Amino acid sequence: MRVAYLGSFEHDWNTESYIARALERSACEVLRLNEVDWESGPLIQAVVEFNPDLFLFAKGRIGGRWEPSCEMLSVAIAGIRRFTKAKVACWVFDLLCREYNPEREAWAMSASKLCDVFFTTDGYTAPRLTNAVVLRQG
């Protein structure tokens, strides 16, 4: 399986780095896309050239910018879907509920609609999200 993974890979101890290594140990080929390094156009091109089976992201930051509306992420995913057959998944590890952070919940509501599956560790918020599945970390 080929996985294009948009996340934070600046340190070996980042959660995304651990997941990428686990995928590689499971015979997956992983293209690490450090979220601070990519704008939508070049990101789409890199993913299309890699031709993954799965486009995976954690926080969906494009160019290191996070936005509750997911506008830039939506553009990137639309381009990836247009030129590949990749499934799109998010696996986010943060608390997403409105009571904790209304902007984070707004982001999750927007991002989950862009995914074939939205994995979250937050079982409280998952029932309110589109395509959400609770997947615990660790």
Concise structural overview:
This protein is an alpha/beta fold and 138 residues long. Helix content is 34%, strand content 21%.
Topology, element by element:
Layout: E1 2-7, H1 15-25, E2 29-34, H2 40-50, E3 54-57, H3 71-83, E4 87-92, H4 102-113, E5 117-120, E6 132-134
Parallel strand pairs: 1-2, 1-3, 3-4, 4-5, 5-6
Helix pairs in contact: 2-3
Provide a descriptive summary of the structure in words.
The chain has 138 residues and is α/β, with parallel strands linked by helices. 34% of the residues lie in helices and 21% in strands. The protein has a 6-stranded parallel beta sheet with strand order 2-1-3-4-5-6, with helices on both faces. Helix 2 runs parallel beside helix 3.
Q: Please identify the structural class as seen in this structure.
A: alpha/beta
- Which range does the strand content fall in? 15-25%
Number of strands: 6
Largest sheet: 6 strands, parallel
Based on CA inertia axes, which overall geometry fits? globular
What is the end-to-end distance?
22 Å
Q: Helix and strand succession?
A: EHEHEHEHEE
* Major beta sheet, strand line-up: 2-1-3-4-5-6
Overall residue-averaged pLDDT value: 93
Helix run count: 4
Rg measurement, Å? 14 Å
Q: Helix content range of the residues, please?
A: 25-40%
Low-confidence stretches: none
